[in-house]
Amino acid sequence: MSEHTGLKITIIGGGIAGLFAARVLREKHRVTILERSSGGNEVGAAVTPGPNATRILDQYGWDPSRCGALVLGKTRTMDHNGNLIKETDLSGIKQAFGSDWHVVHRIDLWNELLRLATAPSEDLGIRGSPARVEWRAEVVDVDAESGDVKLGDGTVVPSDLVIGADGIKSATRHLVVGKEGDQPRPSGASIFRFILPRETVDKVDSQAIDPSRPAELTLRIALDGSRRTIVSYPCRNHELLNIGCIAPNSLIDLPPADSWVAPGEKADLLRVFGDFHFRPLLEYVYPAFAFA
Q1: Where in the chain is the domain with CATH 3.50.50.60?
Q2: Phi and psi (nearest 5°) for 283?
Q3: Phi, psi torsion values for 279, nearest 5 degrees
Q4: Nearest Cα to Cα of residue 219 among 102, 49, 75
Q5: Residues in domain FAD-binding (predicted)?
């Protein structure tokens, strides 16, 4: 199939899902990505794609070294005082499941997927044409019958296939699941997410980030029934420590917010998690953000 045949595919949303869909489809189809932001605005910190995900990424040419992805070699579970409860060796993951378990900064993964979606085909050793990305393209309506996608500036993008990959505030999901199924449901919990550089982490715990060994993910759980948890792991070639502090909303003094991202007060973070042995690192956090 030549690069001039195939379907005209419009992907709404240029996040991780949209970019990877573009990489998969670009070899045999003409792909356009419509992204309402100016790019590089992925919400969150780091992610932990397991072997079921990285095995697929491997098939489509991702390069872990380009995005500073680290192989996850061990997980540890501790109580809030730092006492070890369980340790799991993950060194056999690749042999068992065909690929490694990785940890990677979300924006670094996004940049790698953008490369795979838009780089010249000869650079990737594949056929077809690169996907085209339209930044600041706000979708206001989609005609599910005709495939026409209408933008905020009045432009209509005709399509043979429309893929909705536009996240929690999707303009397309209701066309598939209906209005009722389109409504998100609150989890009842929030997470303070932040990242600390290695030079800061080393001041408190020189073992938390150790480039000489595979990455470790540590889960710290309060065993008092409060459902408080802290998770941490390195990313970006051991340059950063990703930290997430999870607690029920009833424990966090969050102001009303329409956004999924609300500013979190450091004092609130320390009040809720101050009894964890991890507190010395939390003292270095500012600002923090709470995700509903």
Answers
A1: 8-43+108-181
A2: -65, -20
A3: -50, -40
A4: 75
A5: 9-176
Paired tokens of 117: 């979606």
* Dist CA 247 CA 229 (whole Å): 7
Cα–Cα distance for residue pair 156/147, rounded to 1 Å: 10
- Of 171, 170, 141, nearest to 154 (Cα)? 141
Q: And the tokens for 92?
A: 């056999």
- Structure confidence by residue, pLDDT tens digits, 4-50: 579 999 999 999 999 999 999 999 999 999 999 887 666 668 999 99
Nearest to 274 by CA among 242, 231, 230: 230
Best-predicted range by mean pLDDT (57-71, 156-170, 196-210): 57-71
As annotated, the residues of the chain forming the CATH 3.30.9.30 domain(s) are: 56-100+186-292
How far, rounded to the nearest angstrom, does the alpha carbon of residue 259 sit from its chain's CA centroid? 17
Kindly report each contact of residues 118-122 with a partner whose C-beta sits within 8 Å and lies 24 or more positions away, as own/partner. 118/22, 121/3, 121/26, 121/27
**May I ask the CATH architecture of the domain 8-43+108-181?**
3-Layer(bba) Sandwich (3.50)
Least confident of 73-77, 188-192, 238-242: 188-192
Structure tokens at 235: 């990313």
This prediction has a pTM of 0.92
Residue 68, CB-side half-sphere exposure with 13 Å CA sphere? 18
- What's the token pair of residue 98? 């065909």
CATH of 56-100+186-292, one of 3.40.50.300, 1.10.10.10, 3.10.450.50, 3.30.9.30: 3.30.9.30
